[in-house]
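In the lab's daily routine, each protein ends up as an entry in a very long ledger. A line of letters takes care of the sequence, but it says nothing directly about the fold. The fold becomes a row of whole numbers, each drawn from a learned catalogue of backbone shapes. The protein below has been through that process, and both of its lines are reproduced in full:
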Amino acid sequence: MAATSPASYVGSALVHQVDKVKISLVFFFVGVLLTANGTLVHERPLIGFAVSFSALLVIWSYYLLRWEELQAQGQWQVVATVFTVLDLGVIAVFVEATGGFRSPFWALLLLPLIFAAIYFSQARLAVPLTAALVTCVYLAESNEMGGWRHNEWDLLGRLIVVAAVAWLSWLLSSVLYRERQAHEVMAQHLAAGVLVLQGADRVFLANPELARLLSWPQTPAAGQSLLELPAGPGTELLREVVGAICRPEARPVDREMSGDGHPRRYLRFYATPWSQAEAGGWVLTVEDVTEIRAVTSTKEKSLSLLSHELRSPLTSMRGLARTLAGKAGELTPEERRHATRCLEAESDRLSRLVNTLLDVSHLEQGKAELCLQAVSLAEISARIRELYTARACEKRISLLSEVPLDLPPVRADADRLEQILVALLDNALKYTPRGGTIRLQGCRQEGHAGLIVSDTGRGIPEAAQEMVFERFGRVPSEREYPFGEPGLGLGLYLARLLAREQGGDLLLDSTLGGGSSFTVLLPLRRPAERRADTAAIA
């Protein structure tokens, strides 16, 4: 079944309201036929015909025709036009039978104009066409009463009334139509899914975002029952939520949806009651909160990790301080020196952690201060290798430097570049097993030069390679590294921020079981900068 627009669904509902007016007219015609005397009813057979034919039209329109299906097939306006003309004919027959041009019921001829305005609020020719038909009826009646000259003011006044009613009806229905269209457009372009239910299970409005969230092939048609929706996890979830949330005391609920090859998704449903003249209903708003839950979970884990990382050095420092304060006289000089070294190491660890958090905050806020100058990659790599040689030997890891001396200098902040390399070597030492190898290599690309830090560790799964560069990002399967060390997950995130802040980038190439290679690229010095440096030396 093709999707029916909410505006056309409202139009079909108006058709049924018009049919109720026509039912009242049928009973009115019957009452006139049975009670009126001969001075009012001139042609009883004509009224009988009007009663019979109008009753058939009402039964056909109200009970047999499916206006929603006609709209889906593009035949709605054609059928409505036929009904408008037939209604005009029936009412004209009734007016003719009750006195023609001087009938007290002549104003009934205005009803088809209003019907046409309701049916065709945007079809500009519909109302003028109907008005022309009514004018023809008036002209015919005028000729029977003695011609135009004897009734020109009477006829002109009635035509003005017809034109005024037609115009006003068309304007009012056009306003209603534009309001319906505006609400529909708003619903169609909302970032959240919207489902308006008429009653407990009848779709009144649904937008494309709802179909996407619930993995439906197309947007449900207006007037469709929840039982008629396509089978699938989204439909089952919606039926469950409608039964649970569509009640006065209900609160927003979160539900998980997965299955049929679709990724796991967390949806939040809100329900608000609404009412119509005929029946009440519910407005359901659906939001995808998968990312919000992921961010919340990441923040919770980050706070937990941060608390742990802060608690460990503080606990060690507190214990060492109590030892030195309570048993200072009982400790040997060597024990005091050892406690002092441990206290200094823990305070340095705490200071590094705080500095890392401050650096991340400054970079994210754009407040980082950089001193960009010519930096020799060979010199800085040699200095970093010297700093990490002892730590590498402790873990029996070979630390090799293969950076060529002729590698051109880059435009960077030396301290920040060293900070990037420290983060990369810390990461390599953490995940490289004993007996492994870490290499420092130089590289050059168009307009850039850089250093590659590669290791022979276990590697990083492809699905998690971007995750390690996220804030507090860590490989989900880090527990698979028996030789790994716990961390906060800020080192690589900060390293990439620093590289990009200096006009470069930090790239990762890794295969599970084949080690990892991190490449930090920075822009080469411009020729103008080299000339300025040469002039300054001279």
Q: What stands out?
A: DSSP finds 15 helices and twelve strands in the chain.
